[in-house]
Amino acid sequence: MVFKGKKAKIEEYIKSVEKVLESVEFSKSARKPVVSEIVDLAKAYVNDARYYLEKEDLFTSLACIAYAEGLLDALRFQGLVNFSWERPSRKTVLVGGVFDILHPGHIFFLRQAWDLGRVVIVLARDSTVRKFKGHNPVFPEGLRRKLLESMKYVYKVVLGDEKFDVLKVVEDVKPDVILFGPDQRELMEKVKEVLQKSGKTNVKLLQLSEAFEEELCKTSKIIERIRELGEGS
């Protein structure tokens, strides 16, 4: 796994159950010794969940915290305890790119971003692609946007600023995290410099440590393959 997105989610899950255990109240109809014993069992499962999380055994940690939640919900449904769940809101994760001819590499990148929170894509305009790559994208920006909006890993797609105004994008989207691909180190450093100068140090910058290395995981390779097939027909 490239990021600890799943571990962070389990950590949030554990914290939400811990908050309930701090505020749980026994109802008047509850047989307190019996109910108290079940609540103590839920606490034990929470402790186990933390132990296995620290050991990087995410599956067992998730199972333990789910058991704890199930015990508490069972008591609440029977009217024996009172509490309410506080569901944590997902962080906003900003990513950017051309996303021309969607391929497995794009899916991998967006899946990693989705693990961190709700994904907002800043999509490169056709004019920006021409400026930096010297040619038009295969799919115009309108079609690229529609394709991305249809993906379950994507919360929202906005068209990029033609002047490449990083600060404006950050102020509009208000991300908690900006995620960069493994080939976007130079861009990340530029964004980091802009944010530091503007005092927006609360935005976390992350970069994928590895790419999805499979055949046809780059737009250029896909175009090359199409040309080869066309020449051979």
Characterise the protein shown here.
- This protein is an alpha/beta fold and 233 residues long.
- It folds into two domains: 5-82, Substrate Binding Domain Of Dnak, Chain:A, Domain 2 (Up-down Bundle), CATH 1.20.1270; 92-232, Rossmann fold, CATH 3.40.50.620.
- Helix content is 55%, strand content 12%.
- The protein is built from nine helices and seven strands.
- Strands 5-4-3-6-7 form a five-stranded parallel β-sheet, sandwiched between helices.
- The protein is elongated.
- It starts with a helix and ends with a helix.
CATH architecture of the largest domain: 3-Layer(aba) Sandwich
Domain count = 2
Order of helices and strands: HEHHEEHEHHEHEHEH
Quick one: overall form? Answer: elongated
Please mark out the parts with pLDDT under 50 across 5 or more consecutive residues, or reply none.
none
Profile the largest sheet.
5 strands, parallel
| Oligomerization status of the protein chains | single chain
Strand order of the largest sheet: 5-4-3-6-7
Discrete helix count: 9
CA-to-CA gap between the ends? Answer: 40 Å
Fraction of residues in helix: 40-55%
CATH fold description of the largest domain: Rossmann fold
Total strands: the figure is: 7
Averaged pLDDT, please?
A: 88
- The CATH class name of the largest domain reads Alpha Beta
Q: Determine the structural class based on helices, strands and strand pairing.
A: alpha/beta
Strand content: 5-15%
CATH H level, superfamily name of the largest domain: HUPs
Rg (CA only): 23 Å
